[in-house]
Amino acid sequence: MISKIFKSSGSFKDVLNYLTQKEKNHEMILSNGVRDYSKRTILNDFIMQAKMNPRIKKMALHMVLSHHPGDEAKIKGKEKEIISMYFEKLKEKGIDFYATQFIVCRHNDQEHIHYHILANYVADDFKRFPDNHIGLKSKKISQEITKEYKLTLAQKLILEEDISQEHKIRHYEQKRIAASR
């Protein structure tokens, strides 16, 4: 399992539109603090909480967790368990996702299993969600979970595909902006 944090995440709307594209064949796995039965309610809930602290300019945190293509059988039926463990281990390191709104979507458009996490930087207490060293902490936790579940270690190919996700989001945002002109 590998993790990737997108530092240049767009707005909630842009990221949510990307996560819920039909061709991504997405599936909602887990959520907290949002009504997850429609894209519109998710977006409204994120925006409503974000407005509670207008000083926070970057509101959307976007992350990806990816598994090796050969690990599908090993994690089948354990997805929520693995993601919950990931969040619990982050909490132990000072990053509590249950202190803010988030959704976790599985994308079924690639050879490998991967999950997108969209979280609100405005926490439930209306302070900034603490993400101190989240990239390093997330990488270490991903490695721990990989060992615990006897999953395949990350390969360069998967890492390159995940890094390209940021470029896909930028392209999608540019395409949407061009279409609205």
- One letter per element, helices H and strands E, the order comes to EHEHEHHEEHH
The level 1 CATH classification is Alpha Beta
Integer count of domains: 1
How much of the polypeptide forms β-strand, as a percent range? 15-25%
CATH fold group: BirA Bifunctional Protein, domain 2
What is the mean pLDDT?
86
CATH architecture: 2-Layer Sandwich
Any overview of this molecule?
This protein is of the alpha+beta class and 181 residues long. It has one domain (2-179): BirA Bifunctional Protein, domain 2, CATH 3.30.930. It contains 6 helices and 5 strands, in the order βαβαβααββαα. A hairpin with a 6-residue loop joins strand 4 (102-107) and strand 5 (114-120). Helix 1 runs antiparallel to helix 2 and helix 4 packs across helix 5.
Key features of this structure:
single chain; 181 residues; alpha+beta; BirA Bifunctional Protein, domain 2; 5 strands; 17% strand; globular
Summed up:
The protein is α+β, with helices and mostly antiparallel strands. It contains six helices and five strands, in the order E-H-E-H-E-H-H-E-E-H-H.
Annotate the secondary structure layout.
Layout: E1 2-6, H1 12-19, E2 27-32, H2 39-50, E3 60-66, H3 72-75, H4 79-92, E4 102-107, E5 114-120, H5 134-148, H6 156-179
Antiparallel strand pairs: 1-3, 2-4, 3-5, 4-5
Helix pairs in contact: 1-2, 4-5
